[in-house]
Amino acid sequence: KEKMITGITPSGEMTLGNYLGAIKRAVEFQDEYELYVFIANLHAITIPQDKEILRKNTKEIAALYFACGLDPQKSTVFLQSDVLEHAQLGWILNTQSSIGELSRMTQFKDKSSKTKAQSKDYIPAGLFTYPTLMAADILMYDAKFVPVGIDQKQHVELTRDLAIRVNNKYGTVFQIPEPLISKDKIKIMDLQDPTKKMSKSSTNQKAIIYMLDEPKVIEAKIKAAITDSENLIKYDPKNKPGVANLMTIYTTLKKITIKEAEKHWQGKNYKDLKDDVAAALIETLAPIQQRYKQLYNSSEVEQWLKDAAIKAQYEARKKLNKVQNALGLNYNR
Ligand code: ATP
Ligand code: MG
After folding, report:
1. Which ligand has its closest atom nearest to the C-alpha of 150?
2. 200-243 tens-digit pLDDT
3. ipTM surpasses 0.95
4. What is the reported pTM?
5. Exposure winner among 47, 149, 198, 269, fewest CB in 10 A?
6. For residue 225, how far is its CA from the centre of ligand 2 (angstroms)?
7. The domain 205-294 belongs to what CATH superfamily?
8. Where are the domains of the chain?
9. H or E stretch including 7?
10. Which among 78, 176, 83 is positioned nearest to 135, based on CA atoms?
11. Which segments are annotated as binding site for L-tryptophan?
């Protein structure tokens, strides 16, 4: 089996976008690939975090991952900070990259301008070196495939550049990874501003379906979702982004095509559409939430994360030794 790695930043509560865009796919991949999934808490702290909230988000995301169907027997699901080698390899890769290439990363440009505006010109250095740590996460395990959204593609390309550079200079130590961007990759939009992506770090709670929202909350949020005044159910993301987004949510959950959905709603109005979407969401989320509650209150999750960390540490130690030897980072060999 080829290796695949994916991560999630515990920077907020998990959203429907995270589930449909990333986790559901990861669950589907775990039979086909040797899957590594890490909770990227070292990446989370590139932006200031409250320690209690970070801890809570980490625990919640871990339990939710398993509740969504990641199987600890099949996949290696661990905390990034439990494998110290990530930071060490990240440092080494910092020394192999240039200020110029890191400055060209669009995530750095976006996030640094945001933090700069919020906090008096303060740009955390970690935001700048985020991509080299991400490269370390990927190269550590010889991952062949990295499933990412368009937003992360540039980082995977930098990872490739760094891997090729190091291999050329010091002999082959890294497998060259590839970004895996599915052609039917969906993007769930904000319910109040359907031209922008639904994001867990967004501040408008009404605009986001969280994985742990109660049925009543889901109904209210969907009811209040922005549509348009046409009252015509048609898939037209450009002119009718709100309606299109609701249709995308429904068709993805129900595994049907847009055409089938349009037929289903022929002659119906937005109230019918919203009732159907809310019902489909509740139907999907209720069993996940139930399983989540069991897991959150048991000690199982922590044990699974610890076991996975031991396995990841073993792999990481081997890779780091190889890299350190290649670079002459040893006294006598
Ligand atoms: P943040 O606001 O902190 O960036 P986020 O919601 O964008 O949070 P990430 O941790 O950046 O979440 O991404 C986790 C995974 O979820 C990635 O694979 C990303 O492509 C996917 N993802 C995030 N938001 C959406 C969305 N609205 N629709 C589909 N996929 C999404
Ligand atoms: Mg994001």
Report:
1. 1
2. 878 899 999 999 999 999 999 999 999 999 999 999 999 999 99
3. yes
4. 0.90
5. 269
6. 22
7. Tyrosyl-Transfer RNA Synthetase (1.10.240.10)
8. 3-181+299-327, 205-294
9. strand 3-8
10. 176
11. 137
